[in-house]
Write a sequence for this structure.
């Protein structure tokens, strides 16, 4: 039974033309706030792209729509809270977007919340996944006490029984979303094979069983999670010969040399997986002192224009963007800001001092309250740090907020919601802050806020040490 194969997991897939997806719902704790849907570009870069947004109405309702070609996972975000769901092309969803759990600390990066579906079709992919997940969680919870005993065969027996039951239950499902569902199930179960027990498979065995014969499922998060975890830090595990060839390929900025070198590893004989792992490994090597960053950037740039598999070109581009955009020490993206009849300003106009950029929503009371703290900081640190406030143009922005923003003792600009500075600085929620040094390089993005975060840190500490350093230099 250890080698039991889930034969019902089909090898083929299907594609659909783009169809409209509609997400309606209720968000009673976010009235007047903007709620957004983000698509996950790929699971190597984890880059997001905004596909739809709406303002939560006074009766707490909202409606968003966008087009999708296949089943995919999307993020729903409002204020600093987020949740995830799957969408099928042509489907309509009705959900409740809840407030943050009051017992959880408010995290600077945002809190996860669990949405509730209303009238969810039992044939929808979300319904099927939630149903399987409940079964999976019940099995894992019931066998938890057996998992860490490698010599205990009881867990292996329970796992084989679970696999058999799952196989028998889902075998008859031949619906359009069955491929995505069965891929999700396959790699959920694959995760159980990583548990240290008698049921655990060896590395080559896992490759043969879970990766070698199955297609790459770029939009299935469970598949991609398994693949990226399986090949995480793959280069140090290679033989010295292959490792040296990989290194020489980076030094010579040659994607071909790297691709051929990786082909000497058995678990990388599949060319599609190999090229994907090459991109992943280059991203990991970027943070190592052993490899020149410029060479890796050149290789990824080359791959973004010429890969063996077209889907990988976008992934390489997204990974390169993630590595080079807004990383500490990297060049801050340039921008152009206009205000009335004044001359436009760019990033160059702010060189010579550190620049603290605030992106805020003028409709948010908490965002506006931070301005009072910033005024105090500006009075104390204006000789050392420049301040800049950017806020999107909303029709329902309170007049009081506009008056406050127009009277700030530093530059403030109202921009269109799709202004390039919003995209270039990866602003997905408000308020968000970026700190840039005097030479125009990123210090932190996101930077600490004026108000304390979950660890009671604020930007004031950074400004204080910067002031001390500059005073000593002068």
């Amino acid at each position: 039974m250890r080698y039991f194969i889930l034969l019902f997991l089909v090898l083929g897939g299907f594609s659909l033309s783009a169809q409209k997806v509609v997400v309606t719902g209720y968000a009673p704790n976010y009235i007047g706030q903007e709620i957004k849907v983000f698509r996950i570009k790929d699971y190597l870069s984890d880059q997001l792209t905004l596909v739809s947004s709406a303002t939560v109405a006074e009766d707490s309702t909202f409606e968003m729509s966008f087009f999708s070609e296949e089943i995919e996972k999307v993020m729903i975000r409002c204020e600093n809270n987020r949740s995830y769901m799957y969408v099928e092309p042509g489907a309509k969803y009705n959900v409740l977007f809840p407030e943050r759990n009051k017992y959880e600390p408010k995290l600077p990066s945002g809190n996860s919340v669990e949405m509730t579906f209303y009238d969810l079709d039992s044939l929808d992919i979300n319904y099927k996944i939630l149903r399987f997940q409940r079964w999976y969680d019940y099995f894992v919870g019931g066998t938890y006490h057996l998992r860490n005993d490698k010599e205990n065969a009881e867990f292996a027996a329970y796992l084989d029984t679970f696999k058999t039951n799952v196989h028998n239950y889902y075998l008859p499902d031949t619906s359009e979303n069955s491929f995505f569902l069965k891929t999700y199930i396959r790699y959920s179960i694959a995760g159980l094979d990583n548990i240290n027990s008698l049921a655990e498979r060896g590395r080559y065995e896992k490759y043969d069983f879970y990766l070698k014969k199955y297609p790459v499922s770029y939009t299935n998060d469970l598949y991609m999670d398994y693949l990226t975890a399986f090949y995480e830090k793959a280069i140090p595990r290679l033989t010295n010969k292959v490792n040296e060839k990989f290194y020489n390929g980076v030094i010579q900025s040659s994607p071909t040399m790297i691709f051929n070198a990786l082909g000497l590893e058995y678990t990388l004989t599949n060319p599609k997986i190999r090229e994907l792992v090459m991109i992943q490994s280059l991203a990991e090597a970027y943070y190592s002192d052993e490899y020149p960053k410029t060479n890796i950037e050149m290789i990824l740039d080359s791959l973004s224009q010429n890969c063996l598999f077209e889907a990988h070109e976008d992934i390489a581009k997204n990974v390169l963007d993630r590595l080079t955009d807004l990383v500490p020490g990297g060049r801050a993206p340039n921008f152009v800001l206009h205000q009335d009849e004044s001359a436009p300003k760019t990033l160059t106009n702010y060189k010579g001092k550190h620049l603290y950029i605030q992106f805020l929503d003028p409709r948010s009371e908490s965002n506006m309250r931070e301005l009072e703290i910033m005024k105090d900081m500006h009075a104390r640190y204006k000789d050392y740090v420049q301040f800049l406030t950017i806020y999107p143009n909303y029709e329902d922005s309170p007049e009081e907020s506009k008056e406050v923003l127009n009277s700030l003792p530093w530059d403030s600009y109202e921009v269109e919601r799709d202004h390039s500075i919003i995209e270039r600085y990866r602003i997905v929620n408000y308020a968000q802050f970026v700190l840039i040094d005097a030479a125009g390089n990123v210090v932190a993005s996101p930077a600490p806020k004026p108000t304390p975060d979950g660890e009671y840190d604020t930007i004031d500490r950074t400004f204080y040490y910067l002031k001390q350093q500059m005073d000593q230099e002068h």
Remarks:
- Residues 145 and 155 are 9 Å apart (CA to CA).
- The mean pLDDT is 89.
